């Protein structure tokens, strides 16, 4: 058990009481507002609440659906708190922090946190094409103009450089990256709503897949999905009287690497150690706030935009030593019968990519005992946010 003199005042004071999601698809044929509305209504129904109970909405800063637009679509009449956070995939974990702050400070009683995007049929969030043309140095805060002329154009290329460095430094192998892809696919095969539910994957198929950006192959990349997810957060005291068992929020934390760089994704290549994530510092804070450590986590939903990001986060959050993430993954520890099952719905690699929000929904399902691939006895779950440029994380706990 870890703790410190300044324990997190919000520990177990708030809970997720409702979850909702749409289908995950290649082409939804719908607006992102329509998707967000569906997910939010399902989350309220799951909680046994109505739109009249909602007085707060939080979102990711890069999403196009605004809190007030969602409030109008839902028919919320009492919206008194709204906010956004980011960047990108870092946002869902930090939205839990926004909700806690609003509830404990009395600014809201019932908060919806959501993400909604047509990431496959419309536009991939974070793509360099959305940022080209900035008129000032550091335009949009990305500093992309320093990297685009030299051919660094995508997230996949950035994480490929990180994977190559990890291979050179620590001997990480393609098979160890493949172990992450196969674990997520195995879990998706047992999850009816997962996009890859009916598509098993073998190591031979993984290794023979086309190379996208060396050393990352096709199945090292996450899906691009259309879809939305939403959760409802309220006080733990109030949650006891609602429809479903509450899932407590034990701790939330963000963190930046000690060797910080300005900008978003590409500047990671100028760090002294591009494989050191902000999640390391986020984890150090998180364990103190939640009052537990890595050995007390039963399952984890790790942000798997690429297979290498899982290996780096296993190290950053203390499940293994630096450089040992590959062997840890290959040992079977991250599979459903391992010591730390990860991404139990299939994750971003095989379930769907709602930029971190589906991981939070899956965490709640597991701790309620409602998951399709249920991990027996699971009482604690770590969820992590996007690995770059900073880290974010949250620990959920089953209410006793």
Oligomer: single chain
The side-by-side strand order for the widest beta sheet comes to 3-2-4-7-1-8-11-10-9
- The H-level CATH homologous superfamily, spelled out, is Thiolase/Chalcone synthase
Q: Quick one: CATH class?
A: Alpha Beta
- Morphology call: globular
Largest sheet composition = 9 strands, mixed
The counted number of beta strands is: 11
User: Averaged pLDDT, please?
Assistant: 93
Unreliable stretches covering 5 or more consecutive residues: 128-134
Which fold name corresponds to the CATH topology? Peroxisomal Thiolase, Chain A, domain 1
Cα end-to-end separation: 18 Å
SSE succession: EHEHEHEHHHEEEHEHEHHHHEE
Q: What integer value in Å does the Rg equal?
A: 20 Å
Please provide a written account of the structure.
By secondary structure, the chain is an alpha/beta fold. It has a single domain (about 15-125, about 220-400), classed as Peroxisomal Thiolase, Chain A, domain 1 (3-Layer(aba) Sandwich). The chain has helices at about 30-45, 65-75, 90-105, 155-170, 175-190, 205-210, 235-240, 280-290, 305-315, 325-330, 345-350, 355-370; strands at about 15-20, 55-60, 80-85, 110-120, 210-215, 215, 225-235, 245-255, 300, 380-385, 390-400. The chain has a 9-stranded mixed beta sheet with strand order 3-2-4-7-1-8-11-10-9, sandwiched between helices. A two-stranded antiparallel sheet has the order 5-6. Helix 1 (about 30-45) crosses helix 2 and helix 5 (about 175-190) packs across helix 9 (about 305-315). The model is unreliable at about 130-135 (pLDDT under 50).
């Amino acid at each position: 058990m870890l703790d410190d003199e300044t324990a997190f005042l919000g520990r177990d004071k708030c809970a997720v009481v409702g979850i909702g999601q749409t289908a995950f698809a290649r082409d939804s044929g719908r607006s992102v507002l329509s998707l967000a509305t569906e997910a939010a209504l399902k989350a309220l129904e799951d909680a046994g609440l109505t739109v009249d109970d909602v007085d707060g909405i939080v979102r990711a800063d890069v999403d196009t659906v605004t809190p007030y637009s969602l409030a109008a679509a839902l028919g919320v009449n009492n919206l008194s708190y709204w906010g956004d956070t980011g960047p990108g995939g870092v946002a869902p974990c930090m939205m839990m922090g926004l909700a806690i702050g609003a509830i404990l400070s009395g600014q809201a009683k019932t908060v919806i946190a959501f993400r909604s995007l047509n990431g496959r049929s419309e536009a991939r969030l974070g793509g360099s094409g959305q940022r080209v043309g900035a008129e000032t140095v550091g335009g949009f805060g990305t500093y992309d103009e320093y990297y685009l002329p030299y051919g660094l154009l995508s997230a996949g290329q950035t994480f490929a450089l990180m994977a190559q460095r990890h291979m050179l430094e620590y001997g990480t192998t393609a098979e160890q990256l493949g172990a992450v892809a196969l674990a997520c696919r195995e879990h998706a095969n047992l999850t009816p709503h997962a996009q890859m539910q009916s598509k098993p994957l073998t190591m031979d198929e993984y290794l023979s897949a086309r190379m996208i950006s060396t050393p990352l192959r096709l199945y090292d990349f996450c899906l691009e999905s259309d879809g939305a997810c939403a959760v409802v957060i309220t006080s733990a005291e109030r949650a006891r009287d609602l429809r479903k068992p509450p899932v407590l929020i034990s701790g939330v934390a963000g963190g930046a690497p000690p060797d910080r760089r300005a900008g978003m994704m590409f500047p990671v290549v100028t760090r002294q150690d591009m494989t050191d994530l902000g999640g390391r510092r986020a984890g150090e804070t998180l364990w103190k706030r939640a009052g537990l450590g890595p050995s007390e986590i039963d399952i984890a939903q790790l942000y798997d935009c690429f297979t290498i990001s899982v290996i780096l986060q296993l190290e950053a959050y203390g499940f293994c030593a630096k450089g040992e993430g590959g062997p840890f993954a290959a040992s079977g520890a991250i599979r459903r019968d391992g010591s730390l099952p990860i991404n139990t719905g299939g994750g971003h690699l095989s379930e769907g990519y709602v930029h971190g929000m589906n991981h939070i929904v899956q965490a709640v399902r597991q701790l309620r005992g409602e998951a399709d691939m249920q991990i027996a006895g699971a009482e604690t779950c770590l969820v992590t946010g996007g690995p770059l440029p900073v880290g974010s994380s949250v620990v959920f706990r089953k209410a006793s």
